[in-house]
Write a structure and sequence with these properties.
globular; 3-stranded mixed β-sheet; mainly alpha; 14 helices; two-stranded parallel sheet; 2 domains; Rossmann fold
Length: 307
């Protein structure tokens, strides 16, 4: 949907051999899903009925028998088959038969190592993982994860394509959970523990996440926030939590202690996770606070004024 929305022709290619009726069911399912997403965007006043119809025209669903022609003509191939290694391998063997030598091939997997998948592909230098966050047609972030075999040019081309359709790619090494899923798992599990321990109600925990945690990190990234408040503050707060709740869950990583010991606590030291030595810190603070105010105003969360 994201590519069609930006005016790119998209062929959804079935990787399985199906009977005519089974493929017709699949085709209908895919087009109904696209229609549903476009109907939502239309209802949200993002697109008009005419625009929605034009976007849907960019999408075609083709059977596996059309694979030779579709794959040979494609500049980019995104694999999104079932998260089973055997199925992934057989799919890449099939892709190898027809795909152009210049095409970039990418998996949308959220779990499998790109090194493993790249080995299934001839000329593995043109493979690079791209993990789209759900809902993919709305979420701006895509995690780009090259394999050890991936050429730098492949990463550059993939990022450029994603940026052309308005996505914001981030690059990470091959690691379980990549970036978002790894951080998200800790947050979600800790929220569930708060309910389990009777610390607060689910409603109050979610309210704290939405209007405390959420708005804060929409304006400042987590590492920016460490630098903003000071790495030493994080270290000592974490030590208290580690002593009183769980050492394994709350102890700071070595990098936080190392920065603290080296006097690299963030803004006040002009160095932390980021280097601020050539940054006007007053201007930086003002810009971040202004952005925060604008976000609070947009969400109608600004404190009540007496004026």
């Amino acid at each position: 949907m994201s590519f069609a929305y930006s005016g790119y022709p998209v062929a959804v290619l079935d990787s399985e051999e199906r009977s005519g009726s089974d493929f017709a069911d699949l085709q209908l399912s895919v087009m109904n899903e696209a229609e549903s997403e476009l109907a939502f965007l239309q209802g949200a006043d993002v697109v008009s009925a005419e625009q929605a119809a034009a976007i849907q025209q960019w999408i075609v669903v083709k059977p596996k028998s059309a694979g030779a022609d579709i794959l040979a003509a494609a500049d980019f191939v995104f694999e999104a088959v079932t998260e089973t290694l055997v199925i992934k391998e057989s799919t890449y063997r099939w892709i190898n038969e027809f795909v152009s030598p210049q095409a970039i091939v990418s998996s949308t997997t959220s779990t499998m190592s790109p090194d493993t998948l790249a080995d299934f592909l001839e000329n593995s230098a043109r493979f690079c993982n791209a993990h789209w966050l759900n809902p993919a047609y709305l979420m701006p972030l895509v995690e780009v994860c090259p394999a050890a075999q991936t050429a730098e040019r492949t990463v550059t081309r993939l990022k450029a394509l994603l940026e052309r359709i308005g996505k914001l790619p981030v690059v990470c090494k091959s690691s379980p959970g990549f970036i978002v899923s790894r951080i998200q798992a800790l947050v979600l599990n800790e929220a569930a523990r708060l309910v389990e321990e009777g610390v607060a109600s689910p409603d109050d925990i979610d309210k704290a996440i939405r209007v405390g945690f959420g708005v804060r990190y929409a304006n400042l990234g987590a590492l920016e926030f460490i630098d903003w408040g000071g790495g030493d503050i994080l270290y000592h707060a974490s030590a208290y939590l580690a002593d009183n709740i769980d050492d394994h869950r709350f102890s700071s990583p070595e990098i936080v202690k190392r920065n603290m010991d080296g006097g690299l606590n963030g803004l006040r030291d002009e160095q932390g996770f980021y280097d601020y030595r050539e940054v006007d810190i007053d201007d930086y603070r003002a810009a971040k606070l202004t952005g925060f105010v604008r976000l609070l105003q947009h969400l109608d969360l600004m404190p009540n004024s007496a004026g």
